């Protein structure tokens, strides 16, 4: 008759062949066999985090070993010193998620839980308005956004741990971090998610030191399943906060909990932070948010206008997105200011009002023309109605004027190829590419044509100065 110690030793022999030496020593040598009854082997593990790690990383190895020793009906029971049982089925059976309480007569306290808050529902501190639905995705942010969505589907279970999102002020770092947290709460009931700024975390550390409760403070953070820390660059020159955060980071990461950090710079550029902490920041994925391109700014503007129940002309939207380039907050601020100016002063929202508002946001309004104004300049130069540039006619004069307009639009605006094509009667980006090449080829081979282009460029620049 098999006893529990022999069965577990045989299981360990099987497991040892399947994993590396270091993980075996870390995660399997501390386990003790407790009993074997009715095909259920009970083993004791040090704490809750231990069995969670085993469940998330070594279930298949354990199933294989149990099946080999106890057959298809065998199963493994974890006994956590004071706390719970969790039962794992062998291959062919579902893994049971039911946890039943166990009282072994001891009064030891789980060292990872503060008395009185074990059952507490932690307030996530997330902004419910910051979701993936309200986050406008574009080329500038698609990579970090995709990583965030992958994490939301499987927090702690991807290679993106930690996830560090960095970029300049106002590009959506905080929005994206909140969106991941909100999505995790929506998809994974019971996950403890906490958002906190580095400044607030530092203040908590100071209070914990003053009240001699650092251990309780760290224990609280070890309860968190998903920790989101904003503006991690403010750890600079705060050695004690760095030390405590380092320990919390290690414990959470080791137990498979998700960590999300934001910063206004890449980890390598954060000064006065310990190298050991910077190296851990690089363990997962470092993703940068870039300034939004023109198309993304248009999408963001349309989203904001929709929320304000406001409709602006294409010309006005193009003007706004041409001059507000680098900061999403400024783009949203412009809309709010336009609405306020229009409502309070009872003014119609026209290009004049918009120009006045934008001057409040940028010290020097950049002199840029719109696609529409370029079309008008070119049409006048060729003595053609603007409508002809939208038509399907193949008359050489019109074709050349249209191609020149597209060339100048690409040179002097931030519009994408698709946006430019749309402005010329719904043509696609390949037509714009062909036009750019045609103009460049003619300039290289026809000096008279090049002179005409030069003259037209001067008109465009004159229009910029006088605008």
Walk me through the topology.
Layout lengths: L3 H13 L4 H7 L4 E6 L2 E6 L2 H10 L1 H12 L4 E6 L3 E5 L10 E3 L40 H12 L9 E4 L6 H15 L5 E5 H13 L3 H8 L4 E5 L8 H16 L3 E6 L11 H7 L3 E4 L5 H14 L6 H10 L4 H17 L6 H9 L11 H11 L14 H17 L4 H7 L5 H17 L1 H20 L1
Helix pairs in contact: 1-4, 5-6, 7-8, 11-12, 11-13, 12-14, 13-14, 15-16, 16-18, 17-18, 18-19
Describe the 3D structure.
This protein is of the alpha/beta class. It folds into 4 domains: 98 residues, DnaA, N-terminal domain (GMP Synthetase, Chain A, domain 3, 2-Layer Sandwich); 147 residues, Rossmann fold, CATH 3.40.50.300; 66 residues, Orthogonal Bundle (Helicase, Ruva Protein, domain 3), CATH 1.10.8.60; 96 residues, Chromosomal Replication Initiator Protein Dnaa, Chain: A. Helix content is 50%, strand content 11%. It contains 19 helices and 10 strands. β1 and β2 form a beta hairpin.
Query: What is the overall number of helices?
Result: 19
Helix-strand topology string: HHEEHHEEEHEHEHHEHEHEHHHHHHHHH
Largest sheet: 5 strands, mixed
Q: What level of helicity do the residues show? A: 40-55%
Briefly summarize what is shown:
The protein is α/β, with parallel strands linked by helices and 467 residues long.
